[in-house]
Amino acid sequence: MAGKTLYLGPRLKKLRRDLGLTQAIMAADLEISASYIALMERNQRPVTAEMLIKLATTYRVDVGELADVNADQTVARLQGVLRDPVFSDIAIEPLDIEDIATSYPGVAEALLRLHTAFGEEQLALAERREGDGAHGDPGPTGSAGGDAIGEARAFLAARRNCFSELDDSAAALAGSLNSFETMRVYLAENHELDLRLSDDGLLRSALRWHDYHRRRVYVAERLDDGGRRFQAALQIAILEQGKVIADISSEGRVAGEDGKRLVQRALQSYWAAALLMPYRAFARAAADLRYDIEALCSRFSVSFQQAAHRLTTLQRPGEEGVPFFFLRVDRAGNVSKRLDGAGFPFARHGGACPLWNVHRAFERPDEVNAQMIELPDGERYVSIARTVRGGGGAFGAPSVMRSVAIACAAVHRDKLIYGTVLADAKPTPIGVACRMCHRPRCIARSAPPIGREIVPARFRESGMPFDFSMD
Q1: Which residues pair with 196 in a beta bridge?
Q2: Are both 130 and 94 inside the same structural domain?
Q3: 208: part of which helix (H) or strand (E)?
Q4: How does DSSP classify residue 161?
Q5: pTM to 2 decimal places
């Protein structure tokens, strides 16, 4: 701490008031003048290392609480928030940001919460407008307030699907809980629970069952090692992360009970994934391996979907990885999961364009496919897609094949191992949805765009599903 000037006015004042002391009494305790206390509380004098130690020993408080060892993280979070285009015309010096984070932590936290709420409101407004524009009436799912899935997605997207508190607590245990066996021992020693593998006869096709009365946790033996560890980690999250998850959830604008439950489940799963793939280790490996998803699967003993999912979470301020968007669809084109750490245009809507490789992946199951895509506005993205399988693992067990894709802006192409094969690739033009796509000649079109007049075909057949006027 020597050599670093600390201005701790608000914290010093809070400490004094919490202890029920006047400035004069504190001054007497510390053997300094009351005026000097007043100057320190107004940040007109720094708190020296000697004074910090004296405060800690006199009042038996943790030096870390006074000095705020998390100030650097707050600075990084503020810097990330202040990069928002809404602040682009305001010149804010880096030293000013540090001063706010260090000297006025309450103001810093207030600004961070306001910006998160602002992001949620933007997403909700975008969804309402999308519902009005595309369907005429938003209906029961046209706004985030009436759609549990929409509420949960908005909550995650507003926070870029990154939760440092959960990453930190998972990382603290990751080294000692690196196998199913170590998790079994941990649950026995810390929760008096017996973790066992079981067949479908007992589980009735469930993946995990906490038998509360017998104090046992059963995990389906048909799961692979990554699936077994994830279910065990999920049980630990449910048992130990309730308060942290409740605190994070309470900051959102999720109104419905179903939405709150979905957010809670998402955060529990986030913690479990963070235990299997600790943030710093995974982010470092992703960069070293050039975001090779299959190589990440091998290194962390997880599935393709788990690794792809985790890549969307690498947006911790100051430690960001490539920002990815995640989409999972079935053969019918139904979207069962979206996660956005990239500000992707499909984050709230779209994903139905059949020209996107997330749909074409079904043609070549289990094969990783890379594609350069271009939206109507000219923006280009790298998309990596592959099929994944859910269920199965035993004769007669139901299973489903889905396709997952992660996409990032083309500017990050050179950071990806897939960028090599796309260096000279011609981008595939795709749209958000046929009704919103105005590309004139698309053989895959299923509906004409809104606002365009269908052209009569009396004298010419173009071969396109719909000919429409571009006037």
Answers
A1: 218
A2: yes
A3: strand 208-211
A4: T
A5: 0.70
